[in-house]
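Hi C.,

You asked whether I'd gotten around to modeling the 302-residue construct. I have! Everything is below, sequence then structure, no commentary in between.
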Amino acid sequence: MKKSKLPMPAPLPASIPVPEARPPADMDLVAVPTGVNHRTAAYAYTGGSIFDKRDFHIGAALIKHPQGDLLVDSGFGRDIAKQIATMPRIFQKITKYDVWKTAADQLKAAGYDFGRLSGILLTHAHWDHMSGIPDFPGLPVLVSPRDRAAFYSHEMFGNFRGYFQQLPFNWRDLTFEGGPYLGFPRHHDVYGDGSIVCVPAPGHTPGSIIVFVTLPNQVRYALVGDLVWQREGLTRRLERPFLIRRLGDFDNEGNRQNILKMVSVMQRIPGLIVVPAHDQRAFAEMNQLPNVTTKGLILAAR
């Protein structure tokens, strides 16, 4: 049975301020697309057409900051074929993907100074966000404590448990020591300047987060991970289809409430660029790495 749109929430009240940010002049946000997972709109949100083919973006976003660069998620890694082979047969059968170029290889091709990279910041601990982590051995992996705990339990679906659990990840727990932020109960200001702020948004996984990024020109982004898979989930207030969210979301009601919170934030900050982790259109609005051609994003931007 189809579910109607979620109700339109009220904008954030005036008593909740839009937080100030003091991003450094040389800060940047760069798309690092590593490939696609072939799906349809019917898989992405309730009421989507099975004939509307959607290539789900699989990749990362590089936040350049003078106190240390961060890679938000990691996209496909060099061992993706071996990783996929550890998953159940039904998963392998329905998961059709193309790898373009891994994040590590793209950064190398762009002449990137890997000494600038201080960590990988996970929106959540699922396979398509973690595959590339082994390509950055020893690099700190910043994750919410709830997702790190769930990763080693049967709470977490959708990870390469048989492949990953033998690896010595350099986990670093995110601590949400700050108070309310844009209607979310707590936050973590990564560098203390308001330019990179993480908030807990449990639902898709026990410890999913949203990452708010403010650039020097005061353009604001919200990297929402898998809160929704395509922008329509927020712009049209449409959840994932019933069966998909029953199988793929840890807490349906929690995810629903965080969708409504984000819609309220979007009403309050009309220029906010919302970036679902699997929507190519969103990543096409970011800067790109030099010397790297990714035709998929070019097509998505048209």
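If it helps when you're writing up: Confidence is low (pLDDT under 50) at residues 298-302.

Thanks,
B.
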